[in-house]
Amino acid sequence: MGETVTFTGNGEQVEGYLAVPDNGTGYGVMVIQEWWGLVPQIKRTCDRLAAEGFVALAPDLYRGDIAEHTEMDKAGQLMSTLPPDRAAADMEGAVDYLRALASVQNDRIGVIGYCMGGMLSMIIGAKLGNKIGAVVPHYGAPLGDNEPDWSNLTAPVRGHFAENDDFFPPQAVKQLESKLRDMGKDVHLDVYPGTGHAFCNEENALGTHNEQATAQSWRSTIGFLKNELS
After folding, report:
1. What domains can you pick out in the chain, each with its CATH number?
2. Are strands 12-19 and 54-59 parallel, antiparallel or unpaired?
3. Is 28 helix (H, G, I), strand (E, B) or coil?
4. Which of 18, 23, 56, 61 is such that its CA lies 20 to 30 A from the CA of 39?
């Protein structure tokens, strides 16, 4: 269903995976990868979004590199060495690319992210302000020193987090939710009982895939995006 496309991020050429609905039009959504990179599972997520009526683009933040699900050390290294400014420019380039497509019906783009991408989805939502119409982080959020300046966050946020998660502990996630709500932001970060980090990833690299929680979060995500981007 999808294809590789090229766009510009801060003057550099960046590739991404683009999936478009069969009817050729839809609401634009950027999908942000986990720490594995732009792997087939993320491409399938774009395809599933296209089947739901969205034009979905996943930028290749690692610029062609990936880690297999057996290579957690490599995934950690790729994530920790990803230049933040370059990643931000690549994501902004992807958003601008979507906004310029004739097939995209909305000016304010939706953003979905998983793990590392969940954290980045909230950061780019705060950075790009009115260019973003909805943010959906999955088990990833900027906590502590990773928090951006939230003053420019205008999009509503609906997050899906795990109860058992050492990477993004639910207590810290709920504290961030309270902080943002106190600032007047429309933010709800839901914690799914009995789940572990990466519970939506059907590849089950961490042994935490939860079909029921995945289905529930997917229904919520699709409904939220359609409501906010229409």
Report:
1. 2-229 (3.40.50.1820)
2. antiparallel
3. strand
4. 23
